[in-house]
Design goal:
The chain is of the alpha+beta class. The chain has two domains: 131 residues, no CATH class; 83 residues, no CATH class. Helices cover 35% and strands 20% of the residues. Strands 5-4-7-8 form a four-stranded antiparallel beta sheet, with no helix packed on it. It has a three-stranded antiparallel beta sheet with strand order 1-2-10. A three-stranded antiparallel beta sheet has the order 3-6-9, with no helix packed on it. 34% of the residues are buried. About 3% of the residues have low confidence.
Amino acid sequence: MALFSDGFVSCMQDLTAQDSQLDDVASVEGISTTIKLALAYDQLSMELTALIARNTIATSSLTTMTPPITLGNIVVTPPLRLWHTARTLDLFYGDAFFDQLNDRYRAKQAQFQALARWAYQKLLQIGLGIATTPIPRPPMPTLTAVPGALPDGTYYVTAAWVGANGEIGAAAGPDAIATTTSTFTVTPGPAPSVAAGWNVYVGVSVDTMVQQNSTPLPVNTVWTQPLGLISSGTAPGTGQQPNYYMPFAQTLQRG
């Protein structure tokens, strides 16, 4: 699971899973779903910060955690993803209604406000998923063509940081490189302090990327793709599982 601070809570696919007409409405009304996703993320950031600050029922082992819990520790669990999805759709249809005063859009907004409240209550019941040593999602690695004899073609590449305890963070967004009588190198971005190494994943399509290194690479290592492409194995992951769940008192909010 990704971290909340990775910035990838929900996406267009999550939105259209809840509302199959969203693309058409966005086109007709000229509303950016990308902007609404970002606005909903900002709102949830403030609300989650407030939730953590006023939490009074966690056990002493949680409340004395060092360093203190921040948004960077929060894992995107299913109720958190659904809350963000529903809040985004609430904002989207609120914009559509106030622009056109169309009762159908008002009904849609009410539907997603109710879903947001439900998801929020489930989040409180289950608790926030917390990673004690969060491993952030890296930026896209840098791909560079170098002399070599990798079969000509287009290769898709991503990378992920590996923590000292063996946990693997969410993989970066994939990038692609075309080779012609060459191979390529993969250079990760600056490593976070929690990273003990990194993994590289390569495939001939986004869906076929698998890990190429047998053990985590040192953080300052540049990977040169060998002539033989490993085509089966471990695919890029979505990130860490929570180490525990932080409980909260049940409170109501508008969704």
